[in-house]
Design brief:
two-stranded antiparallel sheet; 2 strands; 131 residues; alpha+beta
């Protein structure tokens, strides 16, 4: 789907294929590390990793209307809110951003475990409540 945005028209023999660009970007965000480390693992310079990540994010941003959708009718909004409430008992939500965490200090005591993410850091997952 993003191939047209990421394919490079170049005479160079070693232009990065679209799937390598996408995998590099996904891997960078999944591991949450430094660009140089990813470049070393993929035999790419840090500058190339930076350019690839930028290009992939710009391509996704240009097509955000295709990838990001929120309910628009009253019926869709109420149905979505009900499903969120049934799933996590959080009222009034019409959407969430997956894997977007805001770091916080540990709240302490037994409550702390509720805020410990998969990377063993304390955070709150960002939700977008209805307006």
């Amino acid at each position: 789907m993003l191939g047209g945005d990421l394919r490079r028209d170049t005479d160079w023999n070693d232009a990065l294929p679209v799937h390598v660009q996408l995998l590099t970007t996904v891997y960078f965000y999944a591991i949450d590390s430094f660009q140089q480390m990813h470049g070393d693992e993929a035999s790419m310079s840090q500058w190339s990793v930076c350019r690839v990540i930028r290009d992939v994010l710009e391509a996704i941003t240009r097509r955000k209307r295709e990838f990001i959708k929120f309910p628009t009718t009253r019926e869709e909004i109420e149905s979505t809110q009900q499903r969120f409430y049934e799933y996590c008992r959080y009222p009034g939500v019409i959407g969430a951003i997956d894997r977007t965490h805001v770091s916080i200090r540990s709240p302490g005591r037994e409550q702390a475990l509720y805020f410990l993410n998969r990377k063993k850091r304390y955070s709150i997952n960002v939700n977008i409540p209805s307006v």
